[in-house]
Amino acid sequence: MSNVTVTKELISELRQVVEARNEQEVRKLLREMHPEDVAEILYDFSTEDSKFVIALFEGEYAVKILIEIDEDTRDRFLTNYSPEEIAKQFIEFMDTDDVVSIIRSFPPKLKDQIISHITDHEFAANIISLLNFDEDTAGGIMAKELVKVNENWTVAQCIDEIRAQAEEVSNVYTVYVVDDHDRLKGLISLKRLILAKARERVSAIMIEDVVSVPTHASSEEVSSIMDKYNLVVLPVADAIGRLVGRITIDDIVEVIKEEAEKDYELMSGITESVESTDKVWVLSRARLPWLLIGLLGGIVSSRVIGLYEGQLKIHPEMAFFIPLIAAMGGNAGVQSSAIIVKGLANNTLGTKDIFPKIIKELMVSLINGLVCAAIILAYNLFMSDSVELSLTVSIALITVIIFASILGTFVPMLLDRVKIDPALATGPFITTTNDLLGLGVYFLVGRLLYGTF
Amino acid sequence: MSNVTVTKELISELRQVVEARNEQEVRKLLREMHPEDVAEILYDFSTEDSKFVIALFEGEYAVKILIEIDEDTRDRFLTNYSPEEIAKQFIEFMDTDDVVSIIRSFPPKLKDQIISHITDHEFAANIISLLNFDEDTAGGIMAKELVKVNENWTVAQCIDEIRAQAEEVSNVYTVYVVDDHDRLKGLISLKRLILAKARERVSAIMIEDVVSVPTHASSEEVSSIMDKYNLVVLPVADAIGRLVGRITIDDIVEVIKEEAEKDYELMSGITESVESTDKVWVLSRARLPWLLIGLLGGIVSSRVIGLYEGQLKIHPEMAFFIPLIAAMGGNAGVQSSAIIVKGLANNTLGTKDIFPKIIKELMVSLINGLVCAAIILAYNLFMSDSVELSLTVSIALITVIIFASILGTFVPMLLDRVKIDPALATGPFITTTNDLLGLGVYFLVGRLLYGTF
Question: Which of A261, A273, B37, B272 is the 20 to 30 A CA-CA neighbour of B285?
Answer without folding.
Answer: A261
